[in-house]
Recover the amino acids of this structure.
DNA sequence: TATATATATGATGTGCGATTCATATGTTTG
DNA sequence: CAAACATATGAATCGCACATCATATATATA
């Protein structure tokens, strides 16, 4: 029981940790609009290719994005079922409790 | 516009970063049951007092917990409005996409 | 099959956040 | 007002996650 809750906490920690990164947040937000392959993500974000691949791997491992092979391209899309509504919820939280942060104040 | 989205991404990063920590997750989960003062949190978690205070400060800054002074005690409670349903959403995500992580597999 | 293109993977140095220790501040009670 | 209790804060060390660079793998096309 205690062991299980530790493992569970760790899963949560990793889940949040996955989104606690500016690059990955930008990538996810880019993918929210439509599925893109790696090169397209690089173009749109200005990020380097290997960095994007590393981060996509993390996102995929945590079920936040899915990948689909098309020829030599790999198209990534965001998990519509859970991540999209989750981000929506956090939008609301932000507006109400983190406005000073969202505005860049400290 | 681009500046704003950067700041917004940063707010999101900090939000997730706040929960991407085992100690804080344990503290939040402890508080989900009922409001507690710092000493009580220390007792229940086995954590050191200063560590708990540091982490509570972070949690409070991000609107995840609220504090109420009662004499020499400070009672902390979790944000029922946003954090509670958010954790519920993530429960669902975990069950479906992170079962291997939740089970401790790699 | 050789070359180009697309993507993934491995190794490494580094900055940042977390814990810990020490101490300060605030509050109550004798 | 002094002593005890409750909590906050500052400083410092340390581990880990991230970006980067170099390279490997996979696929397409000439």
């Amino acid at each position: 029981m205690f062991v299980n809750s530790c493992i569970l906490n760790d899963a949560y920690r990793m889940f949040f940790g996955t989104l606690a990164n500016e690059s990955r947040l930008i990538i996810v937000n880019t993918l929210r609009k439509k599925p893109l392959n790696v090169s397209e993500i690089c173009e749109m974000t200005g990020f380097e290719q290997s960095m994007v691949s590393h981060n996509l791997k993390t996102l995929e491992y945590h079920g936040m994005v899915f990948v689909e092979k098309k020829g030599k391209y790999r198209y990534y899309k965001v998990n519509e079922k859970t991540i999209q509504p989750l981000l929506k919820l956090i939008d609301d939280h932000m507006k109400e409790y983190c406005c000073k942060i969202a505005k860049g104040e400290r």
Summary: The first helix of chain B runs from residue 2 to 19. DSSP finds six helices and three strands in chain B. Chain B touches chain A at residues 5, 7-22, 25-26, 29, 62-64, 79, 81-83, 85-86, 89-90, 92-94, 96-98, 101-104 (CB under 8 Å).
